[in-house]
Amino acid sequence: MARRTSVLVLAIALFTVAGSAALRAGSRTTAQAAPQGPRFERVLALDPGVGVFAYSRISPDGRYLAYAAETREGRRNALVRTITVVDLSDGRVLFTEPGIDAYFSPDGRRMIYFSAEGRSNVTIRHHDTGELVRDVAPTNLGDYYSWGLRDGRNLILTINSRFYYLDGDKAVLPAGTVPSCEGHGRGDRPLLSRDGMRITTFVRGNVVVRSLTDCDFILNTGIPGQKADFSWDGRHVAFHVQKSSGRGYEIQVVDTQERTVRTVTSFSGSSLFPSWTRDGRLSFRYDGEDYRGFMMASNVLSAPARPLPTSPRQLPDERTWDDVFPETERAHATSVVLVWGPWSAHSPDALAELVRAGRYFRESSLDVGVMHAVEPGSLRGDAADLIDRYGIRLPEIPLAPERFQLSGAHNQNPTTLLFRSGRLIDLRMGAQTFEQLRDWVLAAQ
To answer: Minimal CA–CA distance to 369: which of 327, 429, 407, 321?
Structure first.
């Protein structure tokens, strides 16, 4: 595949964890390493015109990075999302294809992803030969894949808590379903451990580690983080979480044996979506005024550990409009609020579909208010640029940092909230289509 120099710029530099100074723009020198503490390397800068759809994933050996680049192309400014695999050793783009949600096999020789090439399907790519195997599994089982090796068999888990083994490159059906556990339910939007035995998931706003097929092991971390990726030994999980200031995100690592947590990053911008290599490094996306692109952290477990919360705080069962948005007077019997941030490339879709839904509710003379709130960790200029670029015309309401977690959007960007008579009756993680929004609201009338 031809090198896309207009899209990708390789920038390599080493940094210590001594705060945001380690990421000053234009620095390309190796900083003196501190005796202790994680070390950071810029591995791939992103052109300003390129977004990243959802997460990125690193190959087991840390050489290859897979992510979905999002760009606007052509006279119609059409949105294009392309699976992109980059060799970080020299910046070459090795593979591209319309699609999202790539995840490497445990041996690094294959990659599963949702392909938008022609008819949408689940595809596996063999990296050594370039062979593409289509229709691996039904698309309705879900995307956002993770891949483990359980008892010598390759196992795929999807965002819908469905899982299936592979026979070669094809799913063995029927697929299984993560069971519900008393007091915890099934959880939402899971990721699989490398040995296929455990998952990380969201339960009432917190990251929970639990068994895949039973309820024998459950650990509520008490931390309101986002997608949590397992280390290769299954002991540690890494995720990003809102900073205590409420402005931006940092990466934390939980030790499931010692029941401790470490804060790995301390930069001025946001560190997002960490992914482990086999040798214990973390690849993650960085989004700040000083640098935008991908980074690698080594010596991760040298960050100081502290105990997990002894009494995990969970989201209350009952929340009201005034709990989450007290600055805004409620004006409708039913209200739909999209909480989003520009660092998620799901957001433009979610906003555009909400605009369509709002138009439908008005034309149907329904008393439904449709609005959006930018999550407080995002750069305000980035949000304004996205709204202008995509022509989004929706009322915006404020969301204070101290109330962000009450919105439930700390687990997934974006998240949509549905209020009826001032009470939060439901929320949905991820971008919703017009049809989903329409049917959801109509059912609540």
So the answer is: 321
